[in-house]
Design goal:
The protein has 120 residues and is an alpha+beta fold. The chain contains 4 helices and 5 strands; from the N terminus they run H-E-H-E-H-E-E-E-H. The longest helix has 14 residues. It is globular and about 35 Å long.
C-alpha cells in the first residue's frame, strides 16, 4: 500500500488501478478528481471511478481488494439510484475510492472518448 496517512486517496487510487489493470478491467476516473486533471479544483476527500464490469465481476473484485488488505464493501442502489452497484474501497487511514459498476444514462461511447492522463 502506498498510503501512510489520511488525505491520500489519490495514492490509494494507484493501488486500486494496479489491481484493475492486472484483472484487465476498463475504468474511468470521474468526479472531482477527474476535474482536477483539467484544472478545475473541487474539494473532495475520495476518488470515484467508473468500471466497465458485470455485477458478478464487481463482487469478485471485492474479494481481491480484501485479500490485498483493503476494506471493500458492495452497495446496491435502488430503482431510482443512478448508480446500480458500487464497490467502496478504503484503507486503514480512511482514504476511499468508490468504484461504480455502471451509471444509468451513461453514453455507451464514454469509455472510447476517455483521455489517458499520466498520474505518477
Amino acid at each position: 500500500m502506498r498510503t501512510s496517512r489520511a488525505g491520500q486517496s489519490a495514492l490509494l487510487l494507484l493501488d486500486v488501478i494496479d489491481i484493475l489493470k492486472r484483472e484487465g478491467i476498463e475504468h474511468l476516473v470521474i468526479g472531482a478528481f477527474a476535474l482536477s486533471a483539467h484544472g478545475v479544483v473541487r474539494a473532495s476527500l475520495g476518488v470515484d471511478a467508473l468500471l466497465k464490469v458485470t455485477h458478478a465481476t464487481l463482487v469478485r473484485l471485492r474479494a481481491l481488494f480484501e485479500a490485498a488488505g483493503f476494506t471493500a464493501i458492495v452497495r446496491r442502489g435502488d430503482a431510482q439510484d443512478p448508480i446500480p452497484i458500487m464497490l467502496m474501497v478504503t484503507d486503514a487511514h480512511g482514504n476511499q475510492v468508490d468504484l461504480l459498476g455502471g451509471l444509468k444514462g451513461l453514453d455507451p461511447g464514454a469509455f472510447t472518448r476517455a483521455m489517458p492522463i499520466p498520474f505518477r
